[in-house]
Write a structure and sequence with these properties.
single chain; alpha+beta; 9-stranded mixed beta sheet
């Protein structure tokens, strides 16, 4: 429900990148909360993974490694067409940083953003083959992450009230039970650790 993520999904689905074979996702976290590396992965990396599941369908975990430190996880996932490398690391600055690169046969796209403690969320301009495609998302009248969550909650309420079908809600990015089960199955090897 982030503007930048919606534009990225539209570009991929419209074939602007060509056939996508590789996705790189790096997620840095540094917050004063005690969690295991797996808990940090499930807390932070699952959000961009949700977008990728929505766009490409389910992946399966091929292998993973949990290193030393608070947030040091590497996961390799795949499906019939794509390989997805996910790295969770202990970011040097307090906050969260997300960087996703989607590599197609004709172009690549990069989405980067996050938040710093005491500041709002931001997303830099979506880059397609290194050129800015959007203006980025910075503070509007409200924080961009809050705005995206409000949109998701509104869409959920519209489905509950019967103003949208479940299929329409899922097409907009909501996770129904089936998609949530796909995410859990996708990450089951990591969760069992």
């Amino acid at each position: 429900f982030l503007d930048s993520a919606q534009v990225l999904a539209q570009k991929i689905q419209a074939g602007h990148l060509g056939k996508v074979h590789r996705i790189l996702l790096q997620v840095g976290v540094n917050l004063p909360i005690e969690k295991t590396p797996t808990e940090w992965f499930m807390e932070v990396a699952v959000h961009p993974l949700s977008l990728l599941l929505h766009v490409f369908g389910p992946f399966r975990t091929e292998m993973f490694t949990i290193g030393k430190g608070r947030a040091n996880v590497a996961v390799l996932l795949s499906n019939a067409d794509q390989m997805l490398d996910v790295s969770l690391y202990d970011h040097p600055k307090a906050g969260i940083h997300i960087e996703m690169t989607v590599i197609g046969e004709e172009a690549s796209a990069r989405l980067s953003g996050g938040f710093r403690v005491g500041q709002d969320w931001w997303f830099d301009p979506l880059l397609i083959s290194g050129m800015p495609y959007t203006d980025g998302e910075y503070r509007y009248a409200e924080d961009v992450w809050y705005r995206a969550n409000r949109r998701a909650a509104r869409t959920f309420c519209e489905v509950v009230r019967g103003e949208r079908t479940h299929a329409e809600g899922e097409a907009l990015g909501l996770f129904g039970l089936a998609r949530a089960a796909q995410m859990e199955t996708m990450l089951a090897p990591l969760l069992r650790n």
